[in-house]
Amino acid sequence: MKNIVARPLPLLAGLGAALVLSACGGGGGGGDTTPPPPPPPVDTPELMVTMGLPGPDVPSGYAQTVATVKVSNVGKAAAASTDVSISADALLERFQVSACSSDSLATACPSLGSRMTISNLAPGASLTFDVSGTVKLGTSGSVNVAAEASTNTGTNLSSSKQSVGFKAYTNDVSIKLDGPTASVPAGGSFQYVVTVANSGPDAAKRVTLTLNQISSKTPVLGAMTCVAAGGAECPSSLNDKSMGVLLLPKDGSLVFTLPYTFNPGETAGLIFAGKVEARGDADTRNDSASLITP
């Protein structure tokens, strides 16, 4: 009888192949796992504060709107409650938030004040506030206005602030009259000389000159003239009643000459008066003058 010897080699070879597949990650098993996608971003409010000025400079001593403040929500969710504060230098007297407008039906203006709370500032909505006051008379220099808005919706805090400065100006315009001091003979000629000047410290803008000649017999006005000095410019049209001057620089002056003649055989007593007006004028005591001729 022959001895039968077992041959385990095929089994061992199969085990070896299985081990190789396992080590290489084959065999249709697990392998790398793709991570789950991140959660979508949460919509939040985002505030933006912008400010504007009505002009490059502002006259002192004159009540007006000096700045506008715009509070906007440029985010994708409503701001349930937004705190707004607006402030100004002490040079701006009688400072107040005087008006508000909304560009969205979903957002209403709050009660006006230097500190305000906006309820439900909708996405894309803006509120615009007017800031008014009177720059202290005599101020020549920069005046600052600042605004800040903040909201805390859930765990998201959004805030924005801005500050702007405007130039306040002051001038001192004056008027001087020269004319006949004695009675004018019948049919005689005479003239009035009107001098308008500005001693500063800043230029005077949009100056108005008003003249008034009163007599029981009306003299005839000849060719009126103007001479400018110190960088000033004469009005484009001369008038013995009223004239406007766009700009009168510091130390600038205008001299107007008005020649009159009575008709033959006529004469009368004369009253001549003049007044000059300009915003930012720190001393109005020298803004008017008059002459009386017997």
Tell me about this structure:
This protein folds into 2 domains: about 120 residues, Immunoglobulin-like, CATH 2.60.40.740; about 120 residues, Immunoglobulin-like (Sandwich). Helix content is about 5%, strand content about 50%. The chain is built from 1 helix and 18 strands. The strands form 4 sheets. The chain has a 5-stranded mixed β-sheet with strand order 2-9-8-4-6, with no helix packed on it. The protein is rod-shaped and about 120 Å long. The termini are far apart. The N terminus is likely disordered.
Give the name of the CATH architecture of the largest domain: Sandwich
Order of helices and strands: HEEEEEEEEEEEEEEEEEE
Strand order of the largest sheet: 2-9-8-4-6
Which oligomerization state do the chains in this entry correspond to?
A: single chain
The number of domains is 2
Query: Number of helix segments?
Result: 1
CATH topology of the largest domain: Immunoglobulin-like
Per-chain topology:
Elements lengths: L8 H15 L23 E6 L4 E3 L3 E11 L5 E10 L3 E11 L12 E7 L4 E10 L5 E13 L2 E14 L3 E6 L10 E10 L5 E12 L4 E2 L3 E5 L12 E7 L4 E9 L8 E8 L10 E6 L1
Offer a few descriptive terms.
five-stranded mixed β-sheet, about 50% strand, Immunoglobulin-like, mainly beta, about 290 residues, single chain, five-stranded antiparallel β-sheet, disordered N terminus, 18 strands
In short:
With 294 residues, the protein is mainly beta. It has one helix and 18 strands.
